[in-house]
């Protein structure tokens, strides 16, 4: 089934304890679509960049079968830019600079050829823009997955609460879940979110794995214990991309299949952190992905 | 097979966001033996208390089939006392008061009837005392499991390093693993610990579960997501007690059985945190334990 992803396509400049980068390709939708491209070839992107965005990077997306018809290129404008520095623990980071540029007035245009999408992934951007995408689709997708962040919980809380009523799955990290609900225990936070709209809640805990909540069921997927986390940027988006990519590929939104989707998402995220930015996501093989998934099975399987 | 546990039997006074206690029964060996008592009835305790320790509390241990022949009662002396206050996140705590009392000159005497023990659990206490126990056993147990803490890594590092050469399994939390090795990544920390003596390393991550490292294999067990953590005191010791209790019961130290033992340990720990101190550990039923273990299976099982 076809997947539509909306979100940022951006430049990032990153500093980690292992080094720093110049401007490299980044943005939530970049990570999501690249990750999903290993599962589905019906992979449609809605985003906006400036005329400073190099064709070579768009070519990367095209090579992965990502449909860029919905990628607007604004002449005379600049691409969204974010730079950040990670602390030694790699779990916390400081934003050094944010230039909204083309994102300031992002008007998400949905090409006609995208209208039949069954799976909608609302990558992190302003809730008002995410809602616009839902409203511009003539048919409601089978599954709408929303990612958001602390910034929007702070400055666009009412918009976010309205949007939550329209989505099926919310993907947030543990701190965002707590901030959104005022509940410290993640079981309680997830229960509260499930009263706000989404029937399913995924709480990402970074190196501590991810939790899936749906009705009265909980599933926990570990993160792969890694010797080295080189750069965590985009890991959460890559996780979301693997998750919805697997669902779109299999067209099965049962709890059991969402569990599998979370394992695939976790496997994809474990690749993402191995190199700077999205570099590791550019040329994975099916064998590498299957091998990584097998590691998850070994890691968490036990018999009583 | 018979289990020998050495460690503190103590009074604790606890403050959590949910309330505070007067002096209640605590101590590493208390939690370990109570937890192990649900798995094995050959459960021998070596510890020391003062004459202020009430017989009613010793009766609790006896009711659980714990052999208290090795529990010394020092006339005219006082029981070890610790008081602490948990922060709102329940993951960090401040020590308010420590009175070593009888623990200051603890000389662990091993009754003859304990000499045949196959499983030795060295609960948290000074490494020199833990080593004395090993040296006083005429036959080396089949499996020696060591628990320790940041205090001993700080003030008795050389003793601890010597002791590590003699043990099979080290159980520590994530911060202790990092402190002991200087490695941030737990995979690297575990590998380094495995060069220090223990062939198997268990790293407890509290609400984030536990990792088991042995040779080139890793197993991850989640912690049960709980609505309420009432009091985390003793959860790590309870985990260790369930772990070694299951091993002693089954007399199987294979990797696959250690995985099961970790699941049982995690299940026991999930009970411990539900009430103050060791209260919840006093009257569990086999059905409750099996039900909790089943929840772990549901929580982490997936099929690809």
Automatic annotation (TrEMBL), chains A, B:
The keyword Electron transport does not apply. Residues 21-280 form the Carbohydrate kinase PfkB domain. InterPro entries: Carboh/pur_kinase_PfkB_CS (IPR002173), PfkB_dom (IPR011611), Ribokinase-like (IPR029056). It holds the Pfam family PfkB. One of its GO terms (molecular function) is kinase activity. Keywords: Kinase, Transferase. It comes from the Bacteria. This is Sugar kinase. It comes from Spirosoma terrae. The lineage of its organism: Bacteria, Pseudomonadati, Bacteroidota, Cytophagia, Cytophagales.
């Amino acid at each position: 089934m076809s997947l539509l992803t909306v979100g940022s396509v951006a430049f990032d400049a990153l500093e980690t304890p292992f080094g720093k980068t110049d401007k490299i390709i980044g943005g939530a939708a970049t990570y999501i679509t690249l990750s999903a491209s290993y599962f589905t070839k019906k992979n449609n992107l809605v985003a906006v960049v400036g005329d400073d965005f190099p064709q070579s990077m768009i070519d990367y997306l095209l090579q992965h079968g990502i449909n860029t018809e919905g990628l607007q290129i604004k002449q005379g404008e600049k691409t969204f830019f974010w730079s950040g520095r990670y602390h030694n623990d790699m779990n916390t980071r400081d934003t050094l600079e944010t230039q909204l540029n083309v994102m300031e007035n992002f008007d998400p245009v949905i090409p006609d050829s995208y209208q039949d999408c069954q799976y909608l992934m609302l990558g992190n951007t302003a809730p008002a823009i995410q809602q616009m995408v839902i409203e511009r689709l003539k048919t409601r997708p089978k599954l709408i997955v929303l990612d958001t962040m602390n910034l929007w919980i702070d400055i666009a809380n009412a918009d976010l609460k309205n949007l939550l009523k329209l989505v099926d799955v919310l993907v947030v990290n543990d701190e965002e879940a707590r901030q959104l609900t005022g509940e410290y225990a993640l079981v309680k936070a997830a229960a509260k979110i499930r009263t706000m709209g989404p029937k399913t809640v995924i709480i990402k805990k970074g190196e501590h794995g991810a939790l899936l909540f749906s009705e009265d069921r909980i599933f926990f997927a570990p993160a792969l214990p890694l010797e080295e986390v080189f750069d965590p940027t985009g890991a959460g988006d890559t996780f979301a991309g693997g998750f919805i990519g697997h669902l779109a590929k299999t067209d099965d939104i049962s709890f059991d299949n969402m569990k599998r989707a979370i394992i695939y998402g976790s496997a994809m995220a474990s690749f993402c952190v191995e190199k700077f930015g999205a570099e590791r996501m550019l040329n994975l093989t099916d064998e590498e992905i299957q091998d990584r998934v097998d590691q998850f099975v070994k890691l968490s399987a036990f018999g009583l």
